[in-house]
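Ops channel
N.P.: pipeline sanity check, posting one input/output pair.
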């Protein structure tokens, strides 16, 4: 099994996404595997706005709280909202260390 983000294993010199400090970002993250992946973002906190199971409808979150990690169940999609306040290169990754070490990690550059 591969442990990837957007079809790529982590490379220290690769920036997968770019953003701008102070701007609201909305991400849709998708777990395309049969395993849970606790999704963690450095440099900010996020809110889970909605979730969707494999063949289901989007369901709004019953409460919206600030998090830095959320479990992404098998084949689940989540809509996240966040604002990076500080410029820099920030990592996001699966918080299972073996998955992270096998490449399930990426960098976003905030300008």
């Amino acid at each position: 099994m591969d442990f990837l983000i957007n079809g790529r294993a982590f490379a220290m010199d690769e920036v997968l996404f770019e953003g701008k400090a102070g701007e609201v970002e909305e991400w849709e993250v998708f777990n395309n595997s049969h395993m849970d992946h606790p999704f963690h973002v450095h440099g900010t906190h996020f809110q889970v706005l909605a979730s969707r199971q494999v063949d289901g409808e989007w369901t709004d979150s019953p409460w919206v709280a600030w998090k830095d990690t959320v479990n992404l169940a098998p084949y689940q999609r989540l809509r996240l909202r966040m604002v990076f306040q500080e410029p820099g290169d920030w990592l996001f990754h699966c918080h299972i260390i073996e998955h992270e070490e096998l490449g399930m990690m990426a960098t976003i550059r905030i300008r």
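N.P.: looks fine end to end. The longest helix spans residues 97-101.
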